[in-house]
Structures are given as C-alpha cells and as structure tokens.
C-alpha cells in the first residue's frame, strides 16, 4: 500500500482552521538555507534542487536500485523555517529582504546516508546544479507544538498567528523560539492566493 502523508499522517499535515496541540516526532529532511525575499528566482531554484533530490530517492527502484526498507510513497510537501535578522526584528513592518529561512522536504524513515549519497549522484548526473553543494541532510524534532491551517495569501498569515498566540497564552504554554514553521500544502504557482493552504506551527513548551 502506498504511503500517502495526507491520509496516513493527517494529524501532522491536515490540521483544522483552529489552533491545536500536536507532538511532532524526529523527522529526516533535505534542507537548504537562505536569506531574503522568497519571491526571488534564487528561492525558486532552491526549491527545485530539493525536489530533484527528493524525486531521485522516490524513483530509485525505476533506476534499478531498491533501497532496503523502501516502500511506495508520495513525496512530502515543501516546508520552511522562518526567522528575521536582528535588523528585521527592529522594524515595525515586515521587510522580506530581512527574512532568514531554511526550506526543506521531509524524507521517509528508510532513508540513510548511503541512500542520500546515491540521490546526490543521480541528481548531479541529471543536472549539475551548484546549489546541490548547499543542501544538507539532517533530522529535526519539533516535539510539542501548536499548529493551525491557514487558508489564503501568505501575507495574511499574521492573523492566523495571532489566534495561535492567544491559544498558547490561554493554555499556559509558551513559544520556544521566534522562528516558526510553515508547511505548504498548495503549489503557489498553480493555486490562486485566496485558496492557498498552509500549515503554520510553533514549537512550544508548557509553563509550570
């Protein structure tokens, strides 16, 4: 049976349009860091390189190599960790040029360092992209988090974050870090902005 994250990991990827608590286990990712406006070509190219590696692993059996533990699955969605530079934090309004980000795509648990090395080999053969040198493979564990589904333009996210912050305060919780996570359930190139679906998430801890 094909593993589809939308069906089999609903609690992590398909939250409601109201804040909810979730415990996020350790996950493996291809990731690449950057700074500046996400509307730039540079950002699109970084996304492209993450997908080239993710599909290299997904399609390995078709290349005649089936990794140990491999199973059919849907490639995971693009995610982003977002923060601001010190300068950006001091401003009253958001300056997208001051954004710091790590964009990433989760990989199934069977993926090992050897499989990652092979994915890089495949991706380089297909298209020698200098950005491949910037991609890291690592694990992240969010642990206890508050998340909520945001529907609409990315620029309207602050309203959803306000609801999440209120929930966090009402439930004697606190945000661990000003950095937040976004999971993109829609392709912004194909879906009109009013219908974009994005999971917003804060890593939190309980107050004593």
TrEMBL record:
It holds the Pfam family GyrI-like. Residues 18-198 form the GyrI-like small molecule binding domain. Coiled coil: none annotated. It comes from the Bacteria. InterPro entries: GyrI-like (IPR029442), GyrI-like_CCH_Lin2189-like (IPR008319), Reg_factor_effector_dom_sf (IPR011256). This is GyrI-like small molecule binding domain-containing protein.
